[in-house]
């Protein structure tokens, strides 16, 4: 704006190795208070690049603290939990401060003592142990709860971090990994120079968190320092939005592996094709090559080996490779069908719209929807038009070959019966019709506007039709909810119109042009438009609209040949509405220029377009008197609406593994380059299990994606608590017995847009099951776990 000072914003760098810069448009708001008066809260905004020292100086100024007074800052969260901010040079981003965080400034009293006591001896409050070495000896606990069972330690939710808490609890209850960190074996294997690692920071931060959780001192801890480290190396986890637990788990396992990789210098290895060699030889070679570059506790515990077989459909070339894996991502059977609720509007004007529930293919088109509805009615699919109605208008008019995935669950789908097939060139044409209520902008203004109301509809009319007949057809179409005027009401006053009126400036023809400008032309058709949207003035001219039956400020809206010659006509029936064409979709509408008052729709108008429509303009008084809005909105329900599709029985985990090992054809967007054909081919691919790790992580792929929607698969999966025999899935003849017992489960409740993560885990010390819900830990039974088949990740050790 003019004369306004520019608003300064900093560019903030995010990430450690994969760095990216972004302009910080919105600053972080922090709540500031003094230790002695925490009810007096002051809010200030800071950049993520501002340091703790800058915040402390600002707080000293706000609370008028003398320069000679020594101060220190605390991070306060929940009711009585504090965390010291001990690194003045740390930025807000590095310290993990978030929007709305409460900071407390404490100053020494007259005796030179800290009111909160010396940090190593504080017993009265909950202190979150940060990762900084200077504070390793702080003791902190929840009042009244001491000497907890090791491992039964909750994790505070820092704001949508339940996904992280669930993953950590599962890993924490993986005995070989936890023992490795508790016994400090990681310190001898830290790889600080690995360019693919995180300088050992992830491993050190995770080790410190595990030691807190297994110390037996705390009922819960706050993993803020750990989350900060994760956010530094993986910016996608730096904020406080809900994330995918599996993505965090994958990052953590990979980060720990690289931080603890025993290989200091990775050799270059030329991979060889199987070239007909025995699987045993190729598999051993692949694993040896993997160990030459990747050797860590993560590999020891979690890594197994796939066999991948690709077959070229053109030359039959077979390519066999063996690839390591850290977890099994198992597919779930996709739903092949979905239920849609739609409304059928019949041609019979006295019939109310009827609601149906139809079962359609999940990957299908609009014709499939019409075919499904045709099975419940006596209407041919070719004589249906499928529309999406929103805000009193046609949001979309679908073509028969459009995908059903473009229809959302929340859409109001209306299907209109028509007497013709709209793709055929006949003597009739289908016209979308909108209803509008006119109003003046002010009492002294001659300008008019319009607002949409009611439900739009489709009407089929001859390509050549008179205005009178079109009016009568429209009135007949609405006869269920529009009351007819009686003779006394109809014979009111003398009506006249000017013979100088033209259509698009083409000379007098007796038809009044209202000239309302592109009244629903552009932005007002947007989804964000309000329900009672105001349309532009009718006195502004537009070439895109041709008014038929305009009223020239009279209530009649129709000029006959006589009245257009200057003669008045008394007793002309009063019309309830006027109508005009709005042509914004390149749908050709033309007229015969004579006094016969015929309207002709051009033969090239073969397709429906929601932007070309006939608008019926109602005077507010006439609308109130003759238009029954309740009757217009009324509809009936078909018995199919109450039909509840039978849910399929749950599937077994082994079914998912079989689906994983099923041969499939690569998609067109993901072809394989055949070395024989020297071109990309849609090969067939088959995955098999060759060797399995000591601890098997199984991930159920519950989220599915398409161009128009994301969905969560709610298929129930049964899994065993013990004795999961994987031997039948191993193609290695020398594999031997391979049975697993369950030790941890990550759960997700809710849908794609949100939800909550929790975890079940078996404590390695007492062998009992527990339920972890952020900071809360409670006892659980095997029956509870088995009863809830709706799971995300599973951990099975041999």
Automatic annotation (TrEMBL):
Top EC class, one word: hydrolase
Ranges where the record places region Disordered: 493-559
Annotated ranges, domain USP: 153-795
Membrane spanning residue stretches: none
SUPFAM superfamilies: Cysteine proteinases, Ubiquitin-like
Matching Pfam families: Ubiquitin_3, UCH, USP7_C2
Main location: cytoplasm
Location(s), subcellular: Cytoplasm; Nucleus
EC number: 3.4.19.12
Protein keywords: Cytoplasm, Hydrolase, Nucleus, Protease, Thiol protease, Ubl conjugation pathway
Acidic residues composition-biased segments: 520-537
UniProt-listed GO biological process terms: protein deubiquitination; proteolysis
One GO CC term, this protein: cytoplasm
A GO molecular function held by the record: cysteine-type deubiquitinase activity
Entry similarity comment: Belongs to the peptidase C19 family.
Protein name as it appears in the record: Ubiquitin carboxyl-terminal hydrolase
Organism: Hymenochirus boettgeri (Congo dwarf clawed frog)
